[in-house]
Design brief:
The complex is a heterodimer of chains A (154) and B (430). Chain A is built from six helices and three strands. Chain A is of the alpha+beta class and 154 residues long. In chain A, a hairpin with a 2-residue loop joins strand 2 and strand 3. The mean pLDDT of chain A is 91. Chain B folds into two domains: 145 residues, Aspartate Aminotransferase, domain 1; 268 residues, Type I PLP-dependent aspartate aminotransferase-like (Major domain) (Aspartate Aminotransferase, domain 2, 3-Layer(aba) Sandwich). Chain B is built from 15 helices and 17 strands. In chain B, the strands form five sheets. In chain B, strands 4-10-9-8-7-5-6 form a seven-stranded mixed β-sheet, sandwiched between helices. A four-stranded antiparallel β-sheet of chain B has the order 13-14-17-16, covered by helices on one side. In chain B, strands 1-2 form a two-stranded antiparallel sheet. The chains are: A alpha+beta (154), B alpha/beta (430).
């Protein structure tokens, strides 16, 4: 089926940047209580740049692959840029198929465009991202842009 | 001979309008999620509509003809539901759902020790409901969260200790005798596991509780839809089930309790309808079941539920049970031929009811469910509100196919055919 494109399956089988690493500025643990998927995620930020995102995740291929892409798209990038990527991802995922995603903005994230047609899977794709923004906030970064533009029903 | 001939089954299916629809680009719906909620026959939908369009009024209030008819319909529904489980009408309390029915008992026990909880209650009976530090609440490791969390909360509020009967690797309960003892005040267990499908033998559980004077509560949410249940024969003190899994509407559940216990129980939710006398500073309460039904009750849902259990009674609960066993056996047989599938729970179909949960090697249940859904097959994925049980079995989650009276072998064939495509989608060989 078309939801599981090669990119998603590749990332799910070979998650990038997986494993919990030191040093880190904050660590969070997020769960999806409806299915029991879990992610422990660490971020290391210095001078407004994300130096590392490391994680240990247990979940479906969508949530694992999304977290893998998240690490790929954010490590080495400034925080504000990473938040823009998150917003673009979320916009696409909550668009019910209307927004195909821009590879310029979200890179491999475009592979998840199909997820937006399955509302029950959107949470899977956002699990890692939500943990990521939470971890950023815990390092003291300003993530207010996330709630300012939050869709009414993510 | 099968429980239903093909013709009979076709007639049953024609009673359930939703089964005629298509999903995911015109594929016929194969509904294998009746363990989560069952579909509704026309007669239930019509009964609710008939109630609203001809007799709707606030039950137990007003002296006008409509109010009388509404009250009569509500109480007649209670009598029908009571008959269905071998009970007397005044022993049957309508609740919002099965979860609320269990909470009602847990909160009554929590409040039973408060001064003046129920004036005039038999002190000996009231004492059975009270608990505190040094007492124990016993559940099992295969409980749905609805029959676990309320007891965790009761333990926290009262200082009692929560203990549990373990589950064996093959999905049966361990011996209750090692856990139930002199300190036990209540033993709560499910009749049928919503994940393993295990049909528990309740006799040893009831005997263990009785030997120490402990109360028993059975979660019958997954048994009442599939097999004949008689509260007297079970010998338990409380039985809870929900309407929407028994082909009835959502928003209604049932608590059955022994009348002497219900009479000694303080209310859980208070307000209108459940009172006897109200002063500004105090009130006295109506006898059961009204004491536990505060506010305007769910009359249309009660009428719908009564119609649903009448539908099942006319179909014949023995045949419903046989049909379920046939489906379970067929499904287990098919899955057993696939070494990449691990079925959770007993392998003997006679010891199972209603559902078959499984895992697929190397593929997360969500992904399994997604591929099935793409072919129009509705199953449940996740921990099915039994997270500790999944932990016990060493799996994060599972995929569950569950059955009802309208389920066919053809549904299982379609499910198996789609399941066979799952490994390929994820680059694994079947």
């Amino acid at each position: 089926m078309d939801l599981y494109g090669e990119l998603i399956l590749d990332h799910a089988k070979h998650p990038q940047h997986v494993g919990l690493r030191e040093p880190f500025g904050a660590e969070v643990h997020h769960v999806n209580p409806t299915c029991g998927d879990e992610v422990t995620l660490r971020v290391q930020v210095a001078d407004g740049v994300i130096h590392d995102v490391s994680y240990d995740a247990q979940g479906c291929s969508i949530s694992i692959a999304a977290t893998s892409v998240l690490a790929e798209e954010t490590i080495g990038h400034p925080v504000d840029e990473a938040l823009e990527t998150f917003l673009a991802m979320r916009r696409m995922l909550t668009s019910k198929g209307a927004d195909a995603g821009d590879p310029e903005e979200i890179g491999d994230g475009v592979a998840f465009a199909g997820v937006s047609r399955y509302p029950s899977r959107v949470k899977c794709a956002l699990l890692g991202w939500t943990a990521f923004t939470d971890a950023l906030a815990r390092t003291g970064e300003d993530i207010s842009v996330v709630s300012e533009t939050a869709p009414s029903r993510p | 001979m099968p429980a239903f001939t093909e013709k009979e089954l076709a007639r049953i299916r024609a009673d359930f309008p939703v089964l005629a629809r298509t999903v995911r680009d015109g594929r016929p719906l194969v509904y294998l999620d009746s363990g989560a909620t069952a579909q509704k026959p026309w007669c239930v939908l019509e009964a609710e509509q008939e109630y609203y369009s001809t007799r709707n009024a606030a039950v137990h209030r007003g002296a006008h003809q409509l109010a009388e008819e509404a009250t009569e319909a509500f109480e007649a529904a209670r009598a029908t539901v009571a008959r269905f489980i071998g009970a007397r009408p005044d022993e049957v309390v309508f609740t919002k759902n099965g979860t609320e029915a269990i909470n009602l008992v847990a909160y009554a026990m929590s409040n039973a020790g408060a001064p003046g909880a129920i004036d005039g209650a038999d002190p000996e009976v009231a004492a059975r409901l009270q608990l505190g530090p040094g007492n124990e609440i016993v559940v099992t490791e295969m409980e749905h969260h609805a029959n676990l969390v309320p007891w965790q909360e009761l333990a926290r509020r009262t200082g009692a200790t929560l203990r549990w009967i373990g589950v064996t690797d093959d999905g049966y309960l361990e011996d209750p005798a090692t856990v139930v003892g002199e300190r036990t005040k209540v033993l709560a267990f499910t009749q049928v596991s919503n994940v393993l499908g295990t049909l528990n033998d309740l006799a040893p559980l009831v005997a263990a509780a009785r030997a120490v004077g402990a109360l028993t509560l059975v979660d019958a949410c997954q048994s009442v839809p599939h097999l004949p249940v008689d509260v007297q024969a079970l010998g338990v003190d409380f039985l809870a089930f929900t309407g929407h899994k028994v082909l009835g509407p959502s928003g209604i559940g049932v608590l059955w309790g022994r009348p002497e216990l219900l009479a000694a129980m303080p209310p859980f939710i208070t307000g209108g309808s459940m009172i006897e006398l109200v002063h500004m500073d105090r009130s006295t309460y109506a006898p059961p079941p009204q004491r536990f039904e505060a506010g305007v009750p769910m009359a249309a849902q009660a009428v719908g539920l009564a119609t649903a259990v009448e539908y099942l009674t006319e179909t014949g609960m023995d045949r419903v049970h046989q049909h379920d066993t046939e489906l379970t056996a067929y499904c287990l047989e098919q899955l057993a031929e696939r070494p990449w599938v691990r079925v959770l729970g007993p392998t003997d179909p006679a010891r199972r009811v209603g559902a078959v949960a499984f895992t697929v090697e190397g593929i997360h249940p969500h992904d399994v469910g997604q591929v099935l859904d793409d072919r129009g097959i509705a199953v449940r994925t996740g921990h099915h509100c039994a997270w500790p049980l999944h932990r016990r079995l060493g799996v994060p989650a599972s995929t569950r196919a569950s059955f009802s009276v309208y389920t066919t072998r053809g549904d299982i064939d379609a499910f198996i055919e789609a399941l066979d495509t799952v490994p390929g989608v994820f680059g694994l060989s079947a």
